[in-house]
Amino acid sequence: MNKMKMLVGAALLSGLLSTSAFAAGVANDASATEAAYTKPQPAKVVSPEGLPRRYLDTTVKVAFTVDEKGQPRDITLVGRKDRDLARSLVPAIAQWRFTPATKDGIPVAQRVVMPLKLVADT
């Protein structure tokens, strides 16, 4: 069985925050500007172990909060209720690290919705 891993492409990283999460977290604050707010950025990505083969070459959405320390919390799969997939992805994502979002230079928690393309390890 081929070992599976998750790749997060540059296009996925640039879309790290969903438009609705960004709008809810920042745009409602009239004093917030692009210069005063920075998005969380991936610093460490861990590949999942034992992904079910049926998810090869699929894209899944995950939602989580990047806390003030850059750690993902409250990780959920969006629109999927597959326990096998969750058992592989959630522990891997829990090991990811981010530079946290900041508002006026202060780290803040930010909810993230991110699509992940699952591909075979080559």
What would you call the shape? elongated
Strand ordering within the main sheet: 1-9-4-5
Specify Rg, calculated over alpha carbons. Answer: 15 Å
Major β-sheet annotation:
4 strands, antiparallel
Specify the helix fraction band: 10-25%
Which structural class best describes the helix and strand composition?
Answer: alpha+beta
Distance between the termini: 12 Å
Low-confidence stretches: 1-32
The total of helices stands at 3
- Give the count of structural domains: 1
Strand content: 35-45%
Write the H/E string, N to C.
EHHEEEEHEEEE
Tally the beta strands: 9
Average pLDDT figure: 78
Report a brief summary of the structure:
This protein has helices at residues 10-14, 19-27, 83-94, and strands at 4-7, 37-38, 41-44, 58-66, 72-78, 97-99, 101-103, 106-108, 110-120. With 122 residues, it is an alpha+beta fold.
Helix/strand layout:
Blueprint: E1 4-7, H1 10-14, H2 19-27, E2 37-38, E3 41-44, E4 58-66, E5 72-78, H3 83-94, E6 97-99, E7 101-103, E8 106-108, E9 110-120
